[in-house]
Specification:
Blueprint (H helix, E strand, L loop, with lengths): L8 H15 L3 E8 L7 H10 L8 E3 L2 E7 L8 H16 L5 E4 L11 H4 L10 E3 L11 E2 L7
Length: 152
């Protein structure tokens, strides 16, 4: 376990940044976003503050982050079938960039309101440069797991 559940959220975020930058200097932080690119809360806000995600960019590579939509232009939650399309596109992007390491947050499981069991299986078959939090290890047993998510 890399993150300590007794730390405050701020301490966990600082520890998380240090660990990922040491483990993977070319880390891309993958976060759930809305298509409007309004990164005002959750992992999206964190991506903007710490990984250079640009406000107004709701999909794809932005700064040292990758916006994966879970909400639409009006900030309403997307259906699972739409999120799946974006996940497949992301997996293709990750396959074409083996030089990068993608840290995938629990997209869709925070503000979008989905359960881990609804989202995690979408990432089955992700390439080895994709790394996940331990909350998803039951669905992704062959994938790299870094530890519990900072907000668990």
């Amino acid at each position: 376990m890399l993150l300590d559940r007794t730390f405050t959220e701020k301490q966990n975020e600082e520890q998380f940044q240090i660990l990922t930058s040491k483990l993977f200097p070319s880390t891309i932080f993958v976060f759930g976003s809305n298509l409007a690119g309004r990164h005002g809360a959750g992992a999206a806000k964190y991506a903007m503050q710490h990984y250079g995600a640009k406000y107004g960019v709701g999909y794809g590579l932005t700064g040292q982050a990758y916006a994966l939509p879970t909400k639409d232009w009006d900030i309403d939650t997307l259906p699972l079938s739409a999120i799946q399309v974006f996940v497949y596109a992301f997996i293709g992007f990750a396959r074409h960039h083996p030089e990068l390491h993608f840290l995938i947050t629990r997209i869709g499981c925070g503000l979008a309101g989905y359960k881990d069991l609804e989202i995690a299986p979408m990432f089955i078959g992700s390439p080895t440069n994709c790394h996940f939090y331990e909350e998803w290890k039951n669905w992704l047993p062959k994938q790299s797991v870094l530890g519990p998510s900072p907000r668990s």
